[in-house]
User: Fold Epoxide hydrolase from Mycobacterium pseudoshottsii.
Amino acid sequence: MVAVDQRGYGRSSKYRVQKAYRIKELVGDVLGVVDAYGADKAFVIGHDWGAPVAWTFAWLYPQRCAGVVGISVPFAGRGVIGLPGSPFGEHRPNDYHLELAGEGRVWYQDYFSAQDGIIAEIEEDVRTWLLGLTYTVSGDGMIAATKAAADAGVDLASMDPIDVIRAGPLCMADGARLKDAFVYPETMPAWFTDADLDFYTGEFERSGFGGPLSFYHNIDNDWHDLADQEGKPLSAPALFIGGQYDVGTTWGAEAIARAHEVMSDYRGTHMVADVGHWIQQEAPDETNRLLLEFLGGLRQ
Assistant:
């Protein structure tokens, strides 16, 4: 088993030019790792931005992929990240993000893409910002937000998905900061300790945020770069693992429901109860069970 820091993160290479973070470059890194280990094929598993990279590797190089698992973010074709009304990149991201956010609001992916504002916001206090983001989109944070909405007479489950996005913590009023909507734990949860937070803080303070944010900057470029793949199915054995309260899973509900239309060997969707975005941290035993079950089934 090999776990890598993607380019721009951790101890992997950093590039000054944003085009170095386009999806085909990221997929090329995966292919390079597989080649470096002398393997003909690999099982590829990814979470968050790792999921679109894993999916796209399987899509572009089916002959090199023995199986693929996406966690949190479902396969979205040329769209890279599935959204309500554009599950597989039916709309150009740069245009659709503006429509999705609504008048006077900014979708966080565009805020990240612009870089300057978000970097200034984060660098005011990297540790506190990371804690706020991590907890806000966790199961603990999202369950509390859902309960608060219910207490105010708002049933999020019955709302239009786009309205949920506009009301959520990742869609901001013009001029606002992302962290204005963060919530923080009274005590650190078992799945995210002070030691974990210290480690991630140290890594990001050392490596910076330009690389990771460039993933978002290139979503529109990725949509263009993958145009020639449109209509081609993902043929490798595939599994999706989502979280009941995960924002990525919620946005991707349409892509999840229609996964069988775009993947010819789709082995199913597994939703982990009571967890948010950090599925493998919040529910490690269940995540490992699902992965081992999937991998074991392919080897029989």
Notes: The longest helix spans residues 284-299. The chain has a mean pLDDT of 96.
